[in-house]
Every structure is written in C-alpha cells, then in structure tokens.
C-alpha cells in the first residue's frame, strides 16, 4: 500500500486552513497546518525530508509566504511548494521569484489544487 | 559595542525566536514600532547573529537628509557628478557590501528615491551618480519605520511594490507600556550596568515607590526614554519626583522654581537632543523652515549648555570642545538665551 503523502498547510486564515484540511483529508493526505510562517517552519524542521509538499499563503504576519518559500527551499531544494495569493500582482511575482512551483490565486478551486498537488508529487518522485 | 535585546515578555521572546530563524537568510526585513522601542537594537542583533557579522553594518537615517543628499549618500557619486562633487565618494550601498545596510525611517523616503531603491532591490545593482557603470549590490537591507506603511500606501506616499519587496520578514516591537514585565527587566539590567559604570558613586537601587511610578508611566519614548530617565534617577536619587514630573509634563513646563532648577540641572547633566512639538503653542507659523530653525536652535542650545556645564562654564574650554571660536560661543550664548543655572541649595 502506498504511503500517504505528507502535506503542510501554512495560512493565517483559520477558514482557509479548515477548508483545505477537510478537503485534502478526504483525498487521503496526511496533514499538518500552521497559522503563521514561523510555526510552519518549525513544524517543517521537525521532519525536513518527510514532507512531500507545502502549501503556503503569501501575505502573512512576521514571515511572509515569500520568506517561507525561500527558507524551505534552502533547506530542501526539491520540495514542491504551492503558493496561494489573493492580493494582486506584486506578491505573485515575488512568489514566482522565490521559486514557488505553482502560484494560485484566491478563490482556490480545490480540484485544480488537488491536481497540482498530485502532479508535483508525482514529478518529484519520478 | 553591542546592545542586547532586553525583555522577558512573550512579545520579545517571540522576536528573539524569529531572529534565530531568519538571521542567516539575508531576507529583507522591516522593523516597526514606536520611537525608542529598540528598532536599531533588533537590526544589530540580526546582524550579529548573521554570517555577515564580520562585514560592515552601515546605518542611514532616511529622514535626516533632503532627497538629493540622501540619494548621493546611498549610491555615492563620481568626481564632478554635480557642483560640489570634488572627489569621488562611495555610497552606503557600496560601503555595506557583503554586510548590512540599515535604512532607518524608511517611511520618510521620497517616492522618487523609493522607485530607485526598488530598482536596486529587484536588479541587485546600482549606479553611483554621474557614473555609467553599475555596481553589484550584495548587501542585506534591513529597514525600520515608526510609520504605518500600509496607511502610507493608501495615502499614496509609499509604493506598494517596494513594500512587498521589503516586507519579507516583519518584526513589530510593541510599545514598552504594553509589556510591564519588560520595564522591570530593563530597570534591573540598566541599574546593574550603571552601577558598574559609575562604580565610584553610591548608587542605590530603586525603591518600590519609584518602581511603581516607572510601571505606571506610559513611556512615549519607550526604552530610550527609560534608559535616560533611569540614569538621571540613579544619579540624582529623586526617582519618584522625576516620574511625577514626566507624568505632569513638568520637565517641559516647570511650575515651581525648585523643580525649574532641578530641571535645568537635569538638562545640563544630560545631552538628550530631541524636539518636543508639544512645546509649540502657536501654529500660525509652523512652516517646515521655521520648525527646522527652531529645532536646530534648540539642539545647539542643549549642546552648548551641556558642554558649558561639563567645563564648569569655562567658556574658553567649551569653545575648544565645540570647535567654534570663543567669540562665536559668546554670541550664541546671547542669541540662544543660554543662562547659567542657579545652583540649588540642596
């Protein structure tokens, strides 16, 4: 039996975290979540090689999503990261510069999100 | 000299934790908080904990210089680039190569310079004024402001794209009044420091009454103000009174002759240059030119008074320290109304 993929969701909106959590749980992923960048990084540090993918919001207090992406990619260059943004041009381009693999704009289409997750994990594993 | 970040509150502990995680990343940082709350201290702690700590830490106060000067200060210039450019000068970006560039009061930067800064941050290169060559900018930019940048974006006085590029890491330092446990910690730390520093004086720790006064004061000047006030209190021993004066605004508007003497002696014993806009009662002449003149006069006055007191009003000695002619000093003493304070009979 295939091992469950382990995902980390970082978003300062409880509503979004809850929504993603419920949806992705139903798709049989093992899930962890954090409401800010610093906590997200600490959770990631607890199992650097073990996470298969990270989903992070861009605009967050303390460590912005761009910072999170940069820090995580530094720890693990092959880590697939999906960035979520709702604020227009600038954070999007920054997220791309920080090498997010995919940038999605809110409101998120969950099925498209799921497709990206499968694709990225499959690509990483191949 | 390295000032540590002092505090035991949750907020300060969180900031220390954040610093631990980001100091080695070189990601742009914006530090916000009221004046005197410790923004520069945080920037220096970040620097100390980073791999850049053997390279320069360069500070620029973006509010202190008019636009044109700030531009040449940051980027440097070639010889002859403009009138007065007698020889080539390296800009702060170049001096901070491989180190840290601390841009204080970034909220005060003009839109024009913001645009240029954004370009440097995006491209990683800059050109000194009057030069055609571009220099690589490998410096870690840490910015600080006591403005609300988000508000300035709405007011269109700060660029949103620059904001997002700078705000990769955001550190907000809450005002001192919101963390009384840190007031205690700071008092303890600096009391011990001053006791060591002034080991020949009989410095007594604060009594409970004074500590309570320290805890109940709202510290508009935050840590810097607390440091200066504590120093006065420890040296003069009348802590409770000093705090009461602060609360009643009496340090600027003395009501009694005794407190006026104390105030002028206090002022003469410290050099704490600042301009208190609350002193201005007449706003009919509040042009920036006037403000600048008044502020400059006050700073000169405070500086001269401080040095005169240190030299026991030996004007000749004072003029040498201030590096002005004896005649100029006498002129300034008259012009700025500098009076020798009457000695208190205490």
From the structure above, extract its key features:
heterodimer; A: 126 residues; alpha/beta; Rossmann fold; five-stranded parallel beta sheet; 5 strands; 19% strand; globular; B: alpha/beta; Helicase, Ruva Protein, domain 3; Arc Repressor Mutant, subunit A
Describe the structure.
The complex is a heterodimer of chains A (126) and B (346). By secondary structure, chain A is an alpha/beta fold. Chain A is built from 5 helices and 5 strands; from the N terminus they run βαβαβαβαβα. Chain A has helices at residues 14-26, 37-45, 65-75, 89-97, 110-125; strands at 6-10, 30-34, 53-57, 81-85, 102-105. In chain A, β3, α3 (65-75) and β4 (81-85) form a beta-alpha-beta unit. The longest helix of chain A is centred in the C-terminal third of the chain and has 16 residues, at 110-125. Chain B has 346 residues and is an alpha/beta fold. In chain B, 48% of the residues lie in helices and 9% in strands. Chain B has a 5-stranded parallel β-sheet with strand order 2-5-8-1-9. In chain B, β6 and β7 (135-136) form a beta hairpin. The model of chain B is unreliable at 251-262 (pLDDT under 50). Chain A binds chain B through residues 38, 41-42, 61-64, 66-67, 70-71, 74, 89-91, 94, and chain B through 14, 17-18, 21-22, 25, 27, 160-161, 164-165, 167-171.
């Amino acid at each position: 039996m295939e091992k469950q993929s382990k995902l980390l969701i970082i978003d300062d909106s409880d509503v979004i975290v809850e929504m993603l959590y419920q949806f992705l749980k139903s798709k049989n992923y093992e899930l962890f979540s954090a409401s800010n960048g610093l906590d997200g990084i600490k959770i990631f540090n607890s199992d650097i090689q073990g996470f298969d993918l990270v989903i992070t919001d861009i605009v967050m207090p303390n460590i912005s999503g761009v910072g999170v992406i940069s820090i995580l990619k530094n720890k693990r260059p092959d880590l697939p990261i999906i960035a979520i943004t709702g604020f227009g041009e600038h954070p999007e381009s920054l997220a791309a510069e920080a090498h997010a693999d995919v940038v999605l704009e809110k409101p998120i289409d969950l099925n498209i999100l799921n497709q990206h997750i499968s694709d990225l994990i499959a690509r990483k594993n191949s | 000299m390295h000032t540590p970040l002092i505090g035991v509150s949750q907020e300060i502990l969180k900031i220390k934790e954040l610093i631990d995680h980001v100091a080695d990343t070189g990601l742009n940082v914006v530090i916000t908080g009221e004046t005197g709350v410790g923004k520069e201290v945080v920037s220096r702690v970040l620097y100390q904990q980073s791999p850049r700590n053997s390279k320069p830490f360069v500070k620029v106060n973006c509010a202190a210089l008019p636009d044109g000067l700030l531009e040449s200060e940051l980027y440097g210039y070639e010889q002859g680039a403009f009138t007065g450019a007698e020889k080539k000068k390296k800009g702060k970006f170049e001096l901070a190569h491989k180190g840290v560039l601390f841009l204080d009061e970034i909220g005060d930067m003009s839109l024009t310079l913001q645009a240029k800064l954004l370009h440097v941050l995006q491209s990683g290169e800059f050109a000194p004024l009057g030069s055609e060559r571009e220099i690589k900018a490998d410096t870690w930019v840490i910015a600080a402001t006591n403005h609300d940048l988000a508000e300035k974006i709405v007011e269109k006085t700060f660029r949103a794209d620059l904001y997002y590029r700078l705000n990769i890491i955001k550190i907000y330092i809450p005002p001192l009044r919101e963390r009384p446990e840190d007031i205690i910690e700071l008092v303890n730390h600096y009391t011990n420091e001053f006791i060591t520093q002034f080991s020949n004086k009989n410095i007594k720790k604060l009594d409970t009454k004074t500590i309570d006064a320290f805890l109940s004061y709202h510290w508009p000047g935050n840590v810097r103000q607390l440091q200066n006030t504590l120093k006065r209190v420890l040296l003069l021993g009348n802590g409770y009174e000093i705090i009461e004066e602060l609360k009643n605004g009496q340090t600027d508007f003395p009501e009694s002759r005794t407190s006026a003497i104390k105030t002028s002696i206090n002022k003469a014993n410290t050099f704490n240059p600042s301009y208190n806009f609350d002193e201005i009662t007449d706003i009919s002449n509040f042009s920036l030119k006037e403000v600048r003149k008044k502020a400059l006069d006050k700073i000169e006055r405070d500086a001269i008074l401080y040095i005169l007191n240190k030299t026991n009003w030996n004007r000749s000695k004072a003029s040498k320290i201030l590096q002005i002619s004896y005649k100029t000093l006498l002129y300034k003493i008259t012009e700025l109304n500098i009076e020798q304070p009457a000695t208190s009979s205490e």
